[in-house]
Amino acid sequence: MQVKFKIQRYNPEKDNQPRWQEFVIEASENMTVLDCLHKIKWELDGSLSFRRSCAHGICGSDGMRINGKNRLACSTLLKDINTSKPVVIEPLPALPIIKDLVLDMTDFYEKYKAVKPYLINNTPPPSDSERLQSNEDAEKLFESAKCILCACCTTSCPSTWSNENYIGPAALLKAYRFIFDTRDEAADERLDIIDTPDGIWRCHTIFNCIESCPKEINITWHISQLKKKLSSREI
């Protein structure tokens, strides 16, 4: 079948602002949007720029806005979207555009690093084993650990659109992953980091993050657990 794509283009060396360009390709319904972008780049316009790596929904590189929704191009099949009209492809919102669909992720990663996304434990480990935790405690972390840092959640959040200082759901989810890790000793330190007007309290429970997450993580629930923990801790 023939599929028309309407792609937002922007080359800072030539363009004063983003523009639209249309492409028509032969495609099958089982092709992914990433397959189609490859076809456009390799056969029609080699200057088209976008990020991709594993092409299997693991690396998070190819997050973009497809027909108005934040998605991974490699995980979006043509048969699952409306192709009767041009398929509209845009970069994720709220981040600076480097070129075409490639974004400057610096601010996103700085906010991710701000929550100290690594295990902090100053107690010497046992001499005869690893630091262990129960299956029940590990289970509490499994869903939050599925995050692939694609930025689909953070860039779908109206709080991010209206406040560039908001730490965002991806960073808050990573804070949950370590705050609720029984092997970690820096929970209070991380809670202090997110307990700010531009931190967790900027989340207004809009649920856009859940709708856009390609790994189907219930991010809002995890943020609610952080709010409960902050509200109940002793000052």
Report on this model:
By secondary structure, this protein is an alpha+beta fold. The protein folds into 2 domains: 2-103, Beta-grasp domain (Ubiquitin-like (UB roll), Roll), CATH 3.10.20.30; 106-232, Alpha-helical ferredoxin (Fumarate Reductase Iron-sulfur Protein, Chain B, domain 2). It has helices at 33-43, 106-114, 135-142, 152-156, 158-162, 169-179, 187-194, 208-212, 219-232; strands at residues 2-9, 19-26, 63-66, 69-72, 87-90, 97-99, 102-103. The longest helix is centred in the last third of the chain and has 14 residues, at 219-232. It is elongated, with a radius of gyration of 20 Å. 33% of the residues are buried. The mean pLDDT is 96.
Query: Termini, distance in Å?
Result: 63 Å
Number of helices: 9
Taken in chain order, the helices and strands follow as EEHEEEEEHHHHHHHH
Q: Using the CA coordinates, give the radius of gyration.
A: 20 Å
Q: Which class of secondary structure composition applies to the elements? A: alpha+beta
Content of β-strand: 5-15%
Strand count: 7
| pLDDT < 50 stretches | none
Total of domains: 2
Main β sheet profile: 5 strands, mixed
Shape category: elongated
Named CATH topology of the largest domain: Fumarate Reductase Iron-sulfur Protein, Chain B, domain 2
Strand order of the largest sheet: 2-1-5-3-4
Identify the CATH class of the largest domain: Mainly Alpha
Q: Mind telling me the CATH superfamily name of the largest domain?
A: Alpha-helical ferredoxin
Mean pLDDT: 96
CATH architecture annotation of the largest domain: Orthogonal Bundle
Q: What share of the residues lie within helices?
A: 25-40%
